[in-house]
UniProtKB/TrEMBL annotation:
Protein name per its UniProtKB record: Short-chain dehydrogenase
Keyword NADP assigned: yes
Record keywords: NADP, Oxidoreductase
Molecular function in Gene Ontology: oxidoreductase activity
Family per similarity comment: Belongs to the short-chain dehydrogenases/reductases (SDR) family.
Species this protein is from: Flavobacterium pallidum
One Pfam family matching this protein: adh_short
């Protein structure tokens, strides 16, 4: 059976929970994780999934999580780096609080990098693993609403972390291009994971999650090192 791990699953309304549900429906053995295990355990029970504590800013937590997966499953077929946040909607670049920015990069960029590094040996056991970095059009230049070219000053820290995450995707893809492991960035679109956002035009969570699931279940001739929404290429 194929094993999938999803980070940042502590809210029923979130993309991680919906992604987990879709992966369970596809027959994957899904491990959901988060830094608050009390919340993770409840959600895992609802999903018919396993639950694990995993704080993406903690090397120790990640090491323990990787040991747990090795001992219980021996491999990892899909890793979905969904943990993230720090959407500084009203902020302006010149007023960035550096400590806030450091924390955002610790989670959104280095969190994903730490998890990928720790689980790479388990991906190698899988042979055809898929890694998905949940990114955002805010980290692209091209997105017509949230992109850097069009919406230059809004949500500066969040946008920079996702821009960097997209860069990380490309760099890792280059290093592992000899293997069958694939890594891609996915923007779920503007998704209604918080109250009130549907009124601003956010789309249903299941639609955003399906593009993540697409990248997590790519066939062997699928793309790597790309940026996608709904299974279609997004320009950087
Ligand atoms: N919603 C959108 O429109 C949208 C659009 C583009 C991209 N995204 C991306 O999609 C992902 C999920 O977002 P969402 O909208 O579903 O919001 P969400 O439910 O708040 O998801 C973020 C998750 O990340 C977790 N997290 C934060 N810091 C963590 C850490 N150090 N270790 C482990 N987990 C941590 C949070 O857990 P806690 O409960 O512990 O804080 C939460 O479960 C994020 O990466 C976000 O940037 C969302």
């Amino acid at each position: 059976m194929k094993i999938a791990l999803i980070t940042g699953v502590t809210r029923r309304e979130g993309l991680g929970f919906e992604t987990a549900m879709q992966m369970v429906d596809l027959g994957y053995n899904v491990i959901i994780s988060g830094r608050d295990f009390t919340k993770v355990r409840v959600l895992a029970g609802e999903l018919n999934a396993s639950g694990m504590e995993l704080d993406v800013t903690s090397e120790e937590s990640i090491k323990d999580a990787a040991s747990y997966v090795r001992e219980n499953y021996g491999k990892l077929d899909a890793l979905i780096n969904n943990a993230g946040g720090y959407y500084d909607a009203g902020a302006q670049p010149l007023e960035i609080n550096i400590e806030f920015a450091k924390s955002a990069f610790e989670t959104n960029l280095f969190g994903a990098l730490r998890v990928i590094k720790a689980f790479m040996p388990l991906h190698e056991e899988s042979g055809s693993a898929r890694i998905v970095n949940v990114s955002s059009g805010a980290g692209s230049f091209s997105d017509p609403i949230f992109g850097l070219s069009n919406n230059q000053s809004i949500a500066p820290v969040y946008s920079m972390t996702k821009l960097a995450l997209n860069g990380l995707t490309v760099k890792i893809a280059g290093q592992i291009n000899h293997s069958k492991i694939k890594i891609n960035s996915v923007c779920p679109g503007f998704v209604a994971t918080y109250p009130g956002t549907a009124e601003w035009g956010a789309r249903p969570v299941n639609e955003g999650a399906s593009g993540i699931v697409w990248a997590a279940t790519l066939p062997d001739d699928g793309p790597t090192g790309g940026f996608f929404r709904d299974g279609k290429v997004l320009q950087w």
